[in-house]
Structures are given as C-alpha cells and as structure tokens.
Amino acid sequence: MDREILLEVPGDGASCRIRVGSLDPLPWEGPLCVVVDRRVARWHRERLPSGPTLEVRGGESLKTVRNLEKVWSFLKEVGADRGTLVLGVGGGTVTDLVGFATATWHRGIPCAFIATTLLGQVDAAVGGKNGLDWGGAKNQVGTIRQPRFVVCDPGFLSSLSPEDYRGGLAEVVKTALLDGAAFFERLEDWQGLLRHRDPEVLAEVVHRCAAFKALVVQADPQEADRRRILNLGHTLGHAWEVVLGRSHGEAVAAGIVAACDLSVHLGLLDPSWRDRVESLLRGFGLPTRLSASTEALLSVLVQDKKRRRGEIHWVLLAGPGRPLVQPVPLSEVPALRL
Ligand SMILES: NC(=O)c1ccc[n+]([C@@H]2O[C@H](COP(=O)([O-])OP(=O)(O)OC[C@H]3O[C@@H](n4cnc5c(N)ncnc54)[C@H](O)[C@@H]3O)[C@@H](O)[C@H]2O)c1
User: Fold this and answer.
1) Contact criterion met (CB below 8 Å) for 336 and 328
2) Does position 36 have pLDDT exceeding 90, yes or no?
C-alpha cells in the first residue's frame, strides 16, 4: 500500500510530496526527461518512465562541475524549460546533482526524484538540499530547493550492494535514535528481517524515516538550527571517512557510537542505551569502533570548525528522541584520546 507524506515549507509556499510505495502512476502529466544512474538503468530499465534520458555513473565522483555541465548540455539538447520536469533516478549523488542542475537551469525548473538507495530514500532525497563537491571538499556548492515529489519504492533496494545497503542502515539507526525509543525498539525487533531486506519492513522503516526527516525540515527548512540534529554521528564520522577512507555508512555507524560515548562521558546518557546502539549496529554488520591518529582526525575537525565559524557543535543524546546540540572542547572527546 502506498503512503504519502506532505512536506510543506512555511513561507515560500514550496511543498514536496513523498510517496513510499510504487512508481505508478507518476504524479506528473507534462513533458519530462530523465537523468538516471547507469546501474539502476541496468537493473530496473523496464520500470523507468519513458522520455529523453541521460545515463550517468553514480558515486561521489559524479558530483563535479564537469558532470553538472553534462546535465546542463542534456537539458539544452532536450529543450527543457520551466514546463519540463527533470526526474533524477538514483542514489544521493544523482539527486544532489540533478537538484543543483535544475535549481540553476533557467533560474530554476521543476525536478523530482525516484530514490533508489536506502540512504537516498531515508535521507538524501528528502529535504531539498542539493550540491556538488568542489575544491577538495564535499558539498561546497549547493542550494536548498524542494523537488516537486519524491518516490521511495523499496523494490529498488533488492539490487543494492551489501555495502551500500548497510550504509543506509546506519542512517536508519541514526533517525530512530533521533525519533524516539519506540522506533529504536522496533528496529531491534526487526533486525533479522531488515538484514534480509524484507520489503514490508523496509517500506515501514523508509516511511518512518522520511516522515521524521520531513518534520525536521519543515521546522527548519534553511538549516538554521533544528536541522543540525540530523548530523548525529557525522562529526567524527566525517573525520574517519576522510582519514581512513571508510565508506560513509561505516564511518557514521562508528560516529554514532562515539556520540553516545561522549554523551555517556558527559553524564547525559545511560550507558545501557549506548550498549544497545552498539549491538544493533553490529548486528547490521557495521563497525562500531574505528581508530585513527588523533592528529589526522583533528586536522579534519579543525577544517570543519573553520567552516562553522569557530566551534564544533556535537549532536549528543540524553536518550532516544532527546538530541541536543552543543559545543564540547575537543579535549573532552573520548574518541580523540588527547
Ligand atoms: N542532500 C542531502 O540532504 C543529502 C543527505 C545525505 C547524503 N547526501 C549525499 O548522498 C550521497 C550518498 O548517497 P548514496 O549512498 O545513495 O550514494 P550513490 O548515489 O553513490 O549510490 C551508491 C551506489 O549505489 C548504486 N546504486 C544506486 N541505486 C542502486 C540500486 N537500486 N541498485 C544497485 N545499485 C544502485 C550507485 O550506482 C552507487 O554505486 C553523498 O554524496 C552525500 O553527500 C545528501
């Protein structure tokens, strides 16, 4: 059964319909063109909407100015204007690129996404942030602009690689921890079913995560404050990703545990919650402890600090559903062992 979430941005009137379920019927009747991840096209070609199509190679290396120009050239070739919908079909790299390309083409033409990775369905395709990597840093260039709609069809997830699927599960655990104990406990119950990609459980989980993110975005569409809670596990996670070259999902899993450790250390979180989080992530085959030289980690954290005008704000937990964002001196962070 399809379920719909309406993300309405107060003020500018933009809204985005997020459908968790099947692609058909696509909520658009005008002209459209498609930018699709080549791997998705290979696995799911018969399910793709018809129209002029550009195939791209998904992965972080997609998010470059060169590939942005390729999308712009495609839009020029097909004569895309403000009456044309550009449908991005793929994971977070495709939706980030298509979101940015359409925000800038003719000062903004409509876009929509079919999210095909677990990370895309629970996070990247929802919320309107888009962007490119530039000058050696991730997401340096980008805008915040809502797509017309997002379809999250768990049927696409069957072909995901084990690594990409696990990476998405790390974000699911993050969302459950931000949402509350009830969702977290369901994940504990569903551990085995999720490991086996049970379609019904996946639909339920994707729906809960997308609905949670939509609520947070609605409360803070421009990422002024509340939206920062979505960075739980990403501060050290990002540093491990850069220093150790670990996948985003693996680094975030360890980052979530490090945020729990810090919360326990500061007397905010009962250690039994940290242990349950660690055990759930481990059950999904994710690493929960990573180590790297403190010096190397600090060099990444200091760059983040500059970007955020002087302070690193950590997302901490006083319990599931009770996140708080506050600066903590680096000397207090157990994972940095200063
Ligand atoms: N805009 C946001 O709010 C936001 C939030 C979180 C992450 N992101 C961005 O999302 C990106 C990561 O997203 P991702 O993990 O989806 O990465 P991705 O787009 O690189 O997809 C991961 C891999 O899965 C493949 N793939 C995609 N769908 C598939 C399918 N159905 N079957 C088989 N293979 C498939 C891709 O080809 C790629 O190799 C990062 O660039 C990150 O910055 C954006």
Assistant:
1) no
2) yes
For residue 19, pLDDT over 90 is answered with yes
Phi, psi of 30 (to 5 degrees): -85, -170
User: For ligand 1, atom 11, which residue shows the shortest CA distance?
Assistant: 92
Which of 130, 160, 190 terminates a domain? The answer is: 160
Q: Which of 123, 36, 161 is nearest to 87 (CA)?
A: 36
Q: Which domain holds residue 23?
A: 3-160
The amino acid present at 39, given as its one-letter code, is: R
> Whose CA is closest to 113, among 34, 55, 50?
34
Query: Residue 149 pairs with which residues in a beta bridge?
Result: 17
Tell whether ligand 1 has an atom less than 6 A from the beta carbon of residue 57: no
| CATH number for 103 | 3.40.50.1970
Is there a contact between 280 and 172 (Cβ–Cβ < 8 Å)?
no
Q: What is the DSSP string of 44-62?
A: HGGGSPPSSEEEE--SGGG
The CB of 175 under 6 Å from ligand 1? The reply is: no
How many domains does the structure of the chain reveal?
2
Q: What is the pTM of this model?
A: 0.96
Percent of the chain with pLDDT over 90: 86
- 58: Cβ–Cβ under 8 A, 6 or more apart, which residues? 37, 38, 39, 40, 90, 91, 93, 94
Length of the chain: 338
How many other C-beta atoms can be found within 10 angstroms of the C-beta atom of residue 162?
8
Q: Is the CB of 210 under 6 A from ligand 1?
A: no
